[in-house]
Amino acid sequence: MPRAAHAVPALLGALLVTVGCTQETSGTARPAVAAVGILPTESEITSAVGNPLSSFGFKPFIGGVEILPDGYRTEAEASPIDCVAVTDTAMRVVYEPTAVIEDARQSYFNWDAGVGVSGADAAVVRLATTADAESTFGDFAARWKQCDGKAVIKHLRGVSNSDLVAVISDVAVEGEVLSATVSTRPGPFSPTSTYQRALGTRGDAIVEASLGLTASGVDQTDPHAAVKAVKVMLDKA
Hints:
With 237 residues, the chain is of the alpha+beta class. It is built from 8 helices and 11 strands.
């Protein structure tokens, strides 16, 4: 889930804001919104999830497909590999086959006792055209539905040399937004962690959100909070 972002040169961010254009379905060109400009602000993500979240000053990752997380690539690392599209936010292996123009991602945190959402990841992927985004969303919708009810076994090789099980449930499609619940457990005697996942599209952009719920947050957090976070981003796309 959320990891600290590294600073990105300001010049790169400025360039991304000023270049590129996208295509509406009607065929009328409009200035593109840079991916970083679609990410939710701290106040927007706070409003969506129902408790304060902060980036603590960490800058977003900005760039191409290479800035997306690259933890799992094969069945030897996570199985079924297709379902990491649901369990993990904007994985590189998921987007490499698509016509990616630029990406941005940011993490937000709250470690205070009693909060419902302790962390969130948000990601924006801009593709070459609206048609590319719509086609990709259709592929993702089919994949998420096929993964509903499945358990993804993630092989955490290294110091722990253990497996983590992520169970996908409650996959739903509402218009141009997908949502799901992911429950993870590092072992049969370990506590379960629960995440809300959502993904949506508008124009040439695909946006994703993941929320990490606390034990109390499973009951106290709006079950549509991740969808709300995604809709905040879609309204800016």
